[in-house]
Automatic annotation (TrEMBL):
It comes from Pedobacter roseus. Keywords: Thiamine biosynthesis. InterPro entries: Aldolase_TIM, ThiamineP_synth_sf, ThiamineP_synth_TenI. Residues 6-175 form the Thiamine phosphate synthase/TenI domain. One of its GO terms (cellular component) is cytoplasm. Transmembrane segments: none annotated. GO terms for biological process: thiamine biosynthetic process. It comes from the Bacteria. This is Thiamine phosphate synthase. GO terms for molecular function: thiamine-phosphate diphosphorylase activity. Pathway: Cofactor biosynthesis; thiamine diphosphate biosynthesis.
Length: 202
């Protein structure tokens, strides 16, 4: 079961150092997504991340920065994807996107994976409500990209998300709402997802 961490929407002190610690603890994919942040701020964050971890970063904005760093992952927001009319993607990168309606899975076959959410009520955005029932089970075609659950997921919900047949989880609020516990929370989530990936009893 895959585990992805998405950046806190706002920039904060010592952010890059904390991201390095998450990578050191086993984080495989980090999505750099910031709201209302300019390219210089993106560069500053990436500059603070150790170069050996740059290939594990996925860029949500300023995609040209991938050429300046050793970044192989590009994320297309839902609006960006629709504006480019689902055209063919270059083959030298890993591409991800986001959907908010399961019917849109039919339109994203060329992507490697997609976020879907909010699955639960958001931990970082008050009033942002989850959209699926507790007994939900994801049904998808074999050729469909991996679907990663996003929204309101803490350690408790990881087991439920697995039962819903998602391919992985994306954590945001549960990692960043208390930065002093970020690495500890990540390690616990990582152990859970790794056990599922190895078909171990949890």
């Amino acid at each position: 079961m895959e585990l992805i961490v998405i950046a806190k929407p706002t920039v904060f002190k010592e952010e890059s150092n904390l991201i390095n610690q998450l990578f050191e603890a086993g984080l495989q994919v980090f999505h750099l997504r910031k709201e209302n942040v300019d390219k210089v701020a993106y560069q500053k964050i990436i500059d603070g991340i150790l170069p050996e971890y740059h290939p594990r970063i996925a860029l949500h904005h300023f995609h040209s920065l991938a050429n300046d760093y050793n970044i192989h992952r590009i994320h297309h927001t839902e609006n960006f994807r629709k504006e480019r009319n689902n055209g063919k993607l270059p083959e030298n990168k890993t591409y991800s996107t986001s959907i908010h309606h399961l019917a849109d899975m039919e339109q994203i076959g060329q992507y490697d994976y997609s976020f879907f959410g909010p699955v639960y009520n958001s931990l970082s955005k008050p009033g942002y409500q989850g959209v699926i029932p507790s007994d939900f089970r994801l049904e998808k075609k074999q050729a469909a990209p991996k679907i990663i659950a996003l929204g309101g997921i803490s350690l408790t919900e990881i087991d439920q998300v697995k039962a819903m047949n998602f391919d992985g989880v994306a954590l945001l609020g549960s990692i960043w709402n208390d930065p002093s516990q970020s690495v500890t929370t990540f390690k616990k989530a990582h152990a859970k997802c790794l056990a599922y990936a190895q078909n171990l009893t949890i």
